Amino acid sequence: TENLEPARIRQSTFYRRLVEGAECNPDTSNAILINVINDIGNNIIRDTREVCAPAQNSFTSLSLTGSQATGGETFLTVNSAGATVFSSATVRYVWQSTTDGFRNVRAEGSSQSLTVANLSRTTQYRRIVEAGNCFATASNVVTITVVEQIRGNNITSNSQTICFGQIPKMIFATVPTDGVGLFLYQWQISRNAGKNWSNITNAINQHYEPLSAPDTTSLFRRIARNTCFTDTSFAINVNVLPLPKIDAGKDTIINVGQSIRLQATGGVSYRWLADSTLSDTLSSRPLVKPRVATRYIVIGTDSRGCSNRDTVLVRVNDIPITKAVEIITPNGDGLNDFFHIQNLELYPDNTLIIFNRWGKQIYQQVNYKNDFNGTSEGKLLPTGVYFYLMKFKVTERVVKGSFTILSE
Q: Taking the CB of residue 228, how many other CB atoms lie within 10 A of it?
């Protein structure tokens, strides 16, 4: 036909028209070329990696490798010998970079691969491959992660003052920044004002919770590390105050029924552990009257709030310290009229029993008050030797003895 509607073709093709007459020689037209632009394939880039932030914003360059893309426009030409030759397919490369997820892009290069230098921030890259006006495709995205210097490695807790033996409160610290956010931590302690530092075992978290009491005033700091850099925080001080020297006094001994005043020193306030024989648990000088050997414990606190304790032992001699008269003369002259037992006021819970020489009980009195006047059943007892037995509630010991009544 005069005109031609070519069928679907898959590669660039030359066309011409040949015109033949019945008796004339054929005539060949000029040739035209229809170039076929193929879809793009194999658009792949590589080398996602981490790099350390450069000193003075420069570092050795690195290469992002791009594959040879397929497709594009293939050209046919005729060489000098008249032969048809296929030229290489042609595509156009456009490299793009971004630091905000490709909301904003920057053109970087037009080669198959790309050389990168002078990065100061984490950056993503992709390659656009264009073929004529027909096709354009984006490669996968690779990320060059720039690990920056560590910033904001700070302890937020204040310095502390504690008493010896106390465990410090938890020490809090920030999460640093470096453009990546993956850190290793190590807490350290110095016991000599920062001259020497040592790692604290298992103290590798963002915050530090002390598990034991420091034995002296100490400094604490945190080391933060990423894959490139190390940063040391400022230190905080944990001031350890010495404990007061509390003295509860020397151990002592008393007789049963006696009381004694204790004396605690070394603090500004005191608290005795509760005991029923103490007159005042908050006094520095409480009065005590133990019936058996007792160890008293006092906790003293100084002006800085630190406390310590001490003990004092009060032993008890369980033999009552009494002494009875040997003779009474109940004649009403006011002299030796009563059977008197010395120190009886120390033992109000007592019982006195008196017997005659034949063992007959002639008198008994609970809570005896030195008022036996030599009578029994209202009658004056005859002159003679009498025997007594005294019991006490504070001890199992019994005091025995004799005395003489002179009734004439």
A: 16
Per the structure block, which two tokens stand in for 379? 């009658």
Q: List Cα–Cα distances, 400 to 79, 122, 144, 188, in angstroms.
A: 150, 103, 105, 75
Distance CA 227, CA 225 (A): 7
Distance CA 331, CA 222 (A): 95
Which two tokens mark 181? 């956010």
Q: Is 360 exposed, middle or buried (0-12, 13-18, 19+ CB in 10 A)?
A: exposed
Structure tokens at 99: 């630091």
pLDDT tens, position by position, 83-131:
655 555 578 899 999 999 898 888 888 899 999 887 878 899 999 998 8
Question: Average pLDDT for residues 378-387, to the nearest whole number?
Answer: 94
Give the C-alpha separation, 302 to 241, whole Å.
Answer: 11
* Residue 40 in tokens: 């793009």
Percent of the residues in the chain that have a pLDDT greater than 90, as a whole number: 60
Read off the pLDDT of each residue in 291-300 and give the average, rounded to a whole number.
94
Question: Taking the CA of residue 216 as centre, how many other CA atoms within 13 Å lie in the half-sphere pointing to its CB?
Answer: 5
User: For 137-192, what is each residue's pLDDT tens digit?
Assistant: 999 999 988 888 899 999 999 999 999 999 999 999 999 998 888 999 999 999 99
Would you report the helix, strand and coil content of the chain in percent, each value rounded to 5?
A: 0, 45, 55
Question: CA separation (Å) from 96 to 62, 113, 140, 395?
Answer: 16, 12, 12, 102
Q: Which of 134, 132, 139, 133 is nearest to 114 (CA)?
A: 139
- Reduced to 3 states (helix: H, G, I; strand: E, B; else coil), residue 345 is helix
Instruction: Tell me the C-alpha to C-alpha distance, in Å, between residue 218 and each of 19, 192, 193, 198, 241.
Output: 105, 7, 7, 11, 11
Q: What integer pLDDT is reported at residue 131 of this predicted model?
A: 83
| Contact criterion met (CB below 8 Å) for 349 and 365 | no
Buried b (16+ CB within 10 A) or exposed e, 127-152: bbbbbeeebebebeebebbbbbebee
Residue 90 CA to residue 76 CA, distance in Å, equals 12
Using alpha carbons only, how large is the chain's radius of gyration in Å?
A: 55
Residue 55 tokens, joined: 């000193």
| Beta-bridge mates of residue 403 | 386
Q: Mapping DSSP to helix (H, G, I), strand (E, B) and coil, where does residue 344 land?
A: helix
